[in-house]
Amino acid sequence: MREDPSGRGRHGDIPFGNRHLTDDRDVFEHNAWDNMPWDEEMEREAKEMVERQKTAKVSEEKGRSLLEEPANYWDAFYANHTNKFFMDRNWLLKEFPELDTQQSETSMRALEVGCGVGNTTFPILDLDKDKKLFLYSCDFSPKAVEVLKGSEKFDPSRCTAFVWDITQSPPPDAPPPSTLDLVICVYVLSAIEPKKLHQTLLILRSLLKPGGSLLLKDYGRYDMAQLRFKGDRLIDDNLYCRGDGTLVYFFDSDELDERLREAGFEKEANVVDRRLIVNRAKKVKMQRVWLQAKYRRPL
């Protein structure tokens, strides 16, 4: 599972909804429960599962191949699925109210990183009723960008799309330094090899105006997707390959905060979204863990 496209949330002390499970007997009354705390036993079991995965890591040769050409695997993914895999992220405004251009008195410029085939691009443009926003959308899969630009929804007067591996220097199509109000990374940083993350964050920071914001949502440590991995998937600590060869890393909140501060960002919000997803028909409970964060380039 890549993500839960129905996620909800907001920045604050009590994020992500108010459906709280107060009696375990009611667990199958709804499909999801918000702000679910973990007890010591759950944490211990999760750690033990991850430790067991270390006994069946991918081979050194396979791991090296997966890390050397990650874009190739995403290109193959989009060539296979085109625009039929992910759902549009229509929850964006609830989690990132900064995207509400109706609350802004001036025009805005934003970069969406890892745009894929437009599941974030088009919802963002739909939110921009007054057409105050110009959106740059990039992905390191040429096939994804091709599908995005071929959509009837694509409007080149409001958006530009281009190929960019954000671990590398910006291409000519990228926005100039210090010109962006927002950079949006939804399930993007987890697809980057950890040793390349610092340089990536420095590049993204350089594109923001002083005071501009980096909006993040990504996978948290011990999310269900991490615990479900079987043998021949673990490359390095908390870094995995899916069956199609694409990479995914699971962040700890403190670790993510440290990496962003090292790159010169200031924290505005960094919260852990722990949610219990329920399959009521099969009586199955699934623990999801996501991180949502907002950091800014200092003034």
TrEMBL record:
Top EC class for this record: transferase
The protein's Enzyme Commission number: 2.1.1.-
Biased composition regions of type Basic and acidic residues, renumbered to the chain: 1-13
Lineage top rank: taxon: Eukaryota
Reaction(s) catalysed (UniProt annotation): cytidine(32) in tRNA(Ser) + S-adenosyl-L-methionine = N(3)-methylcytidine(32) in tRNA(Ser) + S-adenosyl-L-homocysteine + H(+)
Keyword DNA-binding: no
GO cellular component: cytoplasm; nucleus
Any matching Pfam family: Methyltransf_23
Entry keywords, A to Z: Cytoplasm, Methyltransferase, Nucleus, Transferase, tRNA processing
Keyword Transmembrane attributed: no
Family, per entry: Belongs to the methyltransferase superfamily. METL family.
Subunit field text: Monomer. Interacts with SARS1/SerRS; interaction is mediated via tRNA(Ser) and is required for N(3)-methylcytidine methylation.
PANTHER family linked: METHYLTRANSFERASE-RELATED (PTHR22809), TRNA N(3)-METHYLCYTIDINE METHYLTRANSFERASE METTL2 (PTHR22809:SF11)
Name this polypeptide is given: tRNA N(3)-methylcytidine methyltransferase
